[in-house]
Amino acid sequence: MLYLQQGFTQDVEPRRWASIPLGLNVIGAGYAYTFGDVFFDPVIGAEDVTYRGNGLVASYVRPFRLGNKLARVDVLLPFTFSRWEGLLNGVATSVSRTGFADPRVRLSLNLTGPPPSGPKEFQEYLATHPVFTTFGVSLAVSLPFGQYFNDKLINLGGNRFVIRPQIGMVHYWGPWSYELTGSLVIYSTNNDFFNGGELKQKSLFALQTHLIRQFDKRFWASISAGYNQGASSVVNKQFNNDQRANFIGAASIGSSFAGSQGLKLAYVYSKAQRDVGSTTNSLLLVWTVVFK
Fold first, then answer.
1. Residues 6 or more apart from 91 whose CB is under 8 A from it?
2. Which residue in 137, 158, 182, 230 has the most C-beta neighbors within 10 A?
């Protein structure tokens, strides 16, 4: 059996550890179009399954001082329109879901790099430190508030907590920066799984890396790669041989305008490396605005 949760996009995020001056707020709105193939555990009897989905997301970021370190909190709220089509036991079948997916809250702490300061002091730090490295740690939690039906195998929400401790770094030299982030994805137990069952899932290990070029004060571009592996499931105390493994590649371009606003366009490709999983293409457009 397979539990499938469709999020806003793959968790490959350039400029993840970028420092934000104190006193600023960042709000964002995004759209993603995702399509591709989904590979279910053969015991389900689902074959030739394709997925198409439109996702909307709202986000909020707020930096703050934690001791003498710079920290930030990120909040992400996704809403999706999703459709799966394929064969179920040889019969053409389709499933649609529309609603909220699980929201995510993330707390991050930069251990090195620019100290907590306002915009003016932050710019002075960058001017006097053309080369520097930031190391950071974070903890993200997906909350079980998304749409969920215990009589359905395919849901937008997971009915469980997903905890992601992360450690990462970004090295800046002139207009270039390089990022590397490692994550451990930990799943709590879903005690109200399909038809009153129990779902447990082993942890997922993930790695992502980004190379970013700032062309001037307004434009930047990045190429990204990621890999994750793990997350085999145990349903009603029965172990399933459904470990996931995915390679992810992405390219992004971004621009700032009107002083405090920004746009990002990204393409994300995810390729399943095992018999269970999904191979998808995603196009994303994200708008952000910074204010005090």
1. none
2. 158
Condensed to tens digits (0 to 9), the pLDDT of residues 223-277 reads 999 999 998 999 999 998 888 899 999 999 999 998 899 999 999 999 999 988 8
List the Cα angle 14/127/27 in 5-degree steps. Answer: 40
CA distance 226 to 14: 11
Placement of tokens 């001791």 in the chain: 67
What are the structural domains, with CATH classification, of the chain? 4-291 (2.40.160.40)
Handedness of CA 5, 8, 9, 12 (dihedral sign): negative
Q: How far is CA 185 from the centre of its chain?
A: 11
Give the separation between CA 28 and CA 128, rounded to whole angstroms: 30
Residue 16 gets which letter from DSSP?
T
Q: What is the pLDDT of residues 112-162, one digit of tens each?
A: 999 999 999 999 999 999 999 999 999 999 999 999 999 998 999 999 999
Between β-strands 219-230 and 104-110, what pairing exists: parallel, antiparallel or unpaired? unpaired
Distance CA 126, CA 115 (A): 11
Contact 48, 93 (CB under 8 A): no
Provide the whole-model pTM: 0.92
212: Cα within 13 Å, side-chain hemisphere = 24
SS3 191: strand
Residues 79, 208: Cα–Cα separation, whole Å: 25
Cα torsion through 250, 266, 171, 20, rounded to 10: -150
